[in-house]
Amino acid sequence: MEKGKGVVGRRWAIDFTDNSTAPSSRDIPDPLGFTRASPDQDDSTLSRQKKDAEANWKSQKAWEVAQAPFKNLLMMGFMMWMAGSTVHLFSIGITFSALWQPISALQGVGKVFEPYKDKKVDTLGPKLLFIALNLAGLALGVWKLNTLGLLPTHASDWVSSLSPAQEVEYSGGGLPIR
Amino acid sequence: MAMVIRVFLLLLFIFFYAKHSFALYEDQVGLMDWHQQYIGKVKHAVFHTQKAGRKRVVVSTEENVIASLDLRRGAIFWRHILGGNDIVDEIDIALGKYVISLSSEGSLLRAWNLPDGQMVWESFLQGPTPSKSLLFISTNFKVDKDNIILVFGKGCLHAVSSVDGEILWRKELATESLEIQQVFQPLDSDIIYAIGFVGSSQFDTYQIDAKNGELLKHRSAVFPGGFSREFASVSSDMLLALDATRSILVSINFRDGETRFHQTYISDLVEDSFGTATIFPSKLTGKIAIKINSYIVFIGVTGDNKLEVVEKIDYPAAISDALPFSEGRQAFALVQHGENKIHLMVKLDNDWRSNLLDESIEMDHQRGLVQKVFINCYIRTDRSYGFRALIVMEDHSLLLLQQGEIVWSREDGLASVIDMTTSELPVEKDGVSVAKVEHSLFEWLKGHMLKLKGTLMLASPEDIVIIQGMRLKSSEKSKMTRDHNGFRKLLIVLTRAGKLFALHTGDGRVVWSFLLPSLCRSETCEYPTWLSIYQWQVPHHHAMDENPSVLVVGRCGLSSDAPGVLSFVDIYTGKELKSMNIAHSIAQVIPLPFTDSTEQRLHLLVDADKHAYLYPRTPEAINMFQRQFPNVYWFSIEAENDIIRGHALQRNCMPEVEDEYCFNTRFLWSIIFPSESEKIISTATRKLNEVVHTQAKVIADQDAMYKYISKNLLFVATVAPKAAGEIGSATPEESWLVVYLIDTVTGRVMHRVTHLGSHGPVHAVFSENWVVYHYFNLRAHRYEMSVIEIYDQSRADNKDVLKLVLGKHNLSAPISSYSRPEVTVKSQTYFFTHSVKTMAVTSTAKGITSKQLLIGTIGDQVLALDKRFLDPRRSINPTQSEKEEGIIPLTDSLPIIPQSYVTHSLQVEGLRGIVTIPAKLESTTLVFAYGVDLFFTRIAPSRTYDSLTEDFSYALLLITIVALIGAIFVTWVLSVRKELSEKWR
């Protein structure tokens, strides 16, 4: 019932799907012959069945969504293998996209499973799978970063810019000046 | 994805089209380099002004240069540098078209073509004994239009044909201790006179037939008083000589083959003549010039051997030789000094009173005294005689005076640079005058329009010439302020004459010059010799408003225990701040690594008795020094005794003198090389101001090696005493080269290696943890270069990443030489084609950029050689990871890439030294090479990775930016429209 808020200046609106039961909420009387009663009170069993089917469908979909990163993972692996282990534009681009995708996916975990949220549907399992697969993708990216030699995992990475140690003694001299 | 690929392709495209090259393009020559040609202090000058055409003067100099100069502008027509051990004795002109030069103690006679300087012939004159060498070109005696050149050298008199250099005859005149002093041939005579002294008291005359060299007469006479070997000829048959006590003038008359002596006491001629007399070497006729005390006395000869004083003038003055100019008349020039002026007088030889010329000329005080005068006469338009004088000043500059003006001057003192240092320029002051901007606005616009045309390839050939001229004369590079990249600096240069020059790195012009002795001359120290120059005060952080200054160290006299002189000179103004005559001698100057609150560097001056004196003599300096006192050591190399000694400092200099700035030194260690097998020929240490970026060297597989970086390392090369001479003086079996790396604090020999069958000279350069040296291999008959790299083994086990991350390592702990760190050494040797005159290494501001060796080749060029070629880890088949690291496969010889000559097509004649100065821009080094010529450029050993190159296409960048902005604008408009139409849908 939030229509009309977004557009400024709309004076009136008729909602034809309005199915509230209380007529007092409206200023306009109901048309003749129209009884404001629940239309599906009769076939409640039918609707329950429908809801069950929907829940099933939702949970199925959630699992599918949760498994989606796996394909991505394979794809990424193939791309990395193609990129080789030398540092150049292509391999860097691939590695960073391999790192970025899981991170952005992990940030939006809630949103991804938003449409499948239901009282009856348990999305914890798919979520965990989704997170695990993305973490695997991230690990793949980090591993690639390491194979490219971009991670400071060696001693040389920590000492390469270490300035020379100070000397205690100072000695000067040489040949006598002529 | 498609976008990524597109960008990648674009970048690839750009990389392929940006050509990388170390070499310069032709139009880049002169943009950042300059080259100046000099000749040195002139010894002899011969004028050649025949007829019209190019008037020139031929000179020979103390740098062994023979040059022909333009008399109108002073430019060099041609010049030849004979080399350090081929000293020019005399020059003259023969046949009006050849320049004859006698060099190498009278053994090499050469004729050069006067117009273009090509060598016409060369004669090698041999003789039994070394002697004084004399050159006399006879003009009146001709054999088939051939002038005879008479040369006395190596104890022999040679007659040489001037056409082809053939030796016509040769007469040996060398007997025991005979020294021929003069050879001449009187006009219209076939007899050559050679006169000389035997021992100290005998006077000999030889008369020789000019046609065949037969000895006609030989007379000798003994003068009991003895001679001082100083004499001057008065006429063709008379000499005036000084006796051994320098108080009697002896006239020697050798007319008709008889020799007669006649003595005259100088005190009879000149009153108050208590000083010792010396004869001026000028060749005058009928008179001589004697210097007594502070006077110059001209003594003339009257008819019957009577001597009389002609004139008495004040000393400093210079006298030229007599110049015959018309109908037997002779003139000579006399230069005297006034206040800020010099007086040039040309007088007739036989008439003192009349002056042919009397001019006074304004003279720069910084040029000092006139040392030599050469005159030449020309015929003016009104048919009278005019004279021009070439004068050599105390600072070795050469000036031509004509009609009361200085026509041109040459700063030839710069041919003999002995030491140099650099300085930053002043910081730019804010605020530029409006008038200046308005004046140059139009020029600026015009210049930029032209440049735009050039970049858009619309410029006509004339425009291109103008653009090139603008690039070369860009005012940006010769500004007197500091620039962002640190390319603009002052080069402070000390010359042998004792003159300081400040040269601007942008265009090489002399900003100021300062003649040191002129102010320092005093009673106690009459002729100081200046030795070296040090940075005294370099203000940067605090004391910013102080001007930087240099310390110039000199000595009163030539011996090593003569008392010292110090002079402090302000770099921005070129004025002396103060000068000191110090009581002790100066054997060594040790700049200490401490500065006081005004950024004055502390210096330790060690005298010949091994006492050390601290300068500046302020309480602050002594306080600062006392804190560091136990850690300061010094070492001395006694090359003649083959001993290296190490010393520490001790309090209290001498018990009798209370001088808290004086320290006694305590002997600590010595390395004595066995004199029968080793002789020190070369030493090298690291430069004091060298900056090292890191102590670790990352090698293949991400391993690290720790460099042994110590400023207290000394490289010493010794050879077998037999092999100390020239190459070829020893067989491979009896010659060897031993190389030492010595810690100068403890005297510990860190490394020692012997090269059997190798020979000096050794040129070495020491930088970071490596030393590269160049020597000759007798067995391979080739020059070799070796590299030694030292690594610290005691730090090698710092491999735990976790500890390094947490900072739990000993890598930044101070090192002491007494901890005896364990070192490993890697070395390798390569063949090298060139022989080397000098070597240097590039230095950059932070020491990150890879290094290049700068090699001064025998052809007087500077060759840049990457240090990567001298890497002891090179192997024939490097592994993949080593290749990735940049290790070049091992070859037996070092490549010489023609494009990597820093001096491109130029030659720095007589190259003696190469100095590298870091610029503020990390990638760039400034290089200054000096010899007879000066050369300056800047190089980037790893290319200019931190700035855009000169040839970067700004136009392309601009067009790209404009196009991108246009595209953004268009797409924005389009997107707005699309959005609107979406909304209406």
From TrEMBL, chain A:
Spans through the membrane: 78-103, 123-143
Membrane topology: Multi-pass membrane protein
One of the record's GO cellular component terms: endoplasmic reticulum membrane
Residue segments, region Disordered: 17-47
Entry's localization field: Endoplasmic reticulum membrane
Keywords of this entry: Endoplasmic reticulum, Membrane, Transmembrane, Transmembrane helix
Major localization listed first in the record, in broad terms: endoplasmic reticulum
Keyword Transcription in record: no
InterPro entries the record matches: TMEM85/Emc4
Keyword Transmembrane helix set for record: yes
Pfam family, one: EMC4
Family statement: Belongs to the EMC4 family.
Name of the protein in question: ER membrane protein complex subunit 4
Species: Tetracentron sinense
From TrEMBL, chain B:
Domain of life of the organism encoding this protein: Eukaryota
Chief place of localization: endoplasmic reticulum
GO biological process, one term: protein folding in endoplasmic reticulum
Listed Pfam families: Beta-prop_EMC1_N, EMC1_C
Domain EMC1 first beta-propeller: 23-412
Record has Transmembrane helix as a keyword: yes
InterPro entries for this protein: Beta-prop_EMC1_1st, EMC1, EMC1_C, Quinoprotein_ADH-like_sf, WD40/YVTN_repeat-like_dom_sf
Domain ER membrane protein complex subunit 1 C-terminal, chain residue ranges per copy: 767-984
Record's bilayer topology term: Single-pass type I membrane protein
GO cellular component: EMC complex
Transmembrane segments: 952-975
Subcellular localization, as worded in the UniProt entry: Endoplasmic reticulum membrane
Keyword set, alphabetical order: Endoplasmic reticulum, Glycoprotein, Membrane, Signal, Transmembrane, Transmembrane helix
UniProt signal peptide: 1-23
Assembly mode: Component of the ER membrane protein complex (EMC).
Family listed: Belongs to the EMC1 family.
PANTHER family linked to this entry: ER MEMBRANE PROTEIN COMPLEX SUBUNIT 1
Name of the featured protein: ER membrane protein complex subunit 1
